[in-house]
Known about the structure:
By secondary structure, this protein is mainly beta.
Amino acid sequence: MLNKIILMGRLTRDPELRRTSSGTAVTSFSLAVDRDFKSQSGEKETDFIDIVAWRNTAEFVSKYFTKGRMAVVEGRLQIRDWTDRDGGKRRSAEVVADNVYFGDSKRDAGGDYGSAPSYGAPAYSAPAPSGGGPSDFAEIGEEDGELPF
């Protein structure tokens, strides 16, 4: 069986870091995720999805993410049954985050995020050709025949 969810959206509020009685870190936050289509009225609709992260992921999110920051969340859907204050039975859906990634750069987010670690591939710029001469790549013209793939 498979229960895998990947979401990309903006945090609607700052994450709340808490600890269980045994000291395990847990944080919760919501993501605003735009739908890929517009409603009948022509408006873009947004879903607000509750996320919960545990242990190192919780500490990472609470340290480096704030309201408005774009995040990519990878996790699983969890349905919880609970009882409200009036004794009514309730049901909630939330995503339990296994991994959370930056969905934007510091520059795009428009804020200072301290010394957030850089995950993933480092930025790379191709070196400029030396001496201003032609590059190592040759353009293939139509007269060269078929492409080799």
